[in-house]
User: Fold this.
Amino acid sequence: MGCITKHYLNESTILGVWKIEEDIDTLLGMVELDAEEKKKYRIFASTSRKLEFLSVRALLAELLGKEAKIVYNKNNKPFLSDGSRFISISHSHKLTAILCSTAEKVGIDLEHMSSNIGAIAFKFLNSKEKITKDPEKRRYHMYLHWCAKESLYKICDKEGISIRNNITIEPFEVKESGECRGKVHTKKINESFDLHYTRYDNYAIVWTKKDCENGNIYK
Assistant:
């Protein structure tokens, strides 16, 4: 199916989502890998990991209108090799998402809602966070908290941040799509963020962005 969403959030920031329905040969024909990328691709043993790798590059080319090389820092945070944009990547099951911007730090996370997330909620929720008691919305609400925290973790790109203890999502009424607020609080960071979320089929998707000049977490 390829790119199912290509949405400009503003003049500098674009969000894209790719639904993986192609086989490996089809995706290989859609991207150009350099020698380093080919070497990395050959290391992957599973078909699903290869499809993820290729779909990321196919989606990025779709968003930018050209091929672009992805590199990673010591925290495994992605960047474009030419330094032209900030970028955040997420993939789960059959979806790949990319958020990129020329002017804003970005973070995005998506999750396929297949597991009983309630069994591990204690690992990422803290006492300040409130999950709806509505049984039809409860699991989705938990996944949104998880994705929101992952998005904030990605945008901060700092070592030692605890998803449970250092990131708090303010209480919000869960809808199919909407907004919420989150805060990252450590000895060195005290920043609040606006987050946006939506549901696609059985996936939860959350993203955040913030101007590079605002706040001190980027220094």
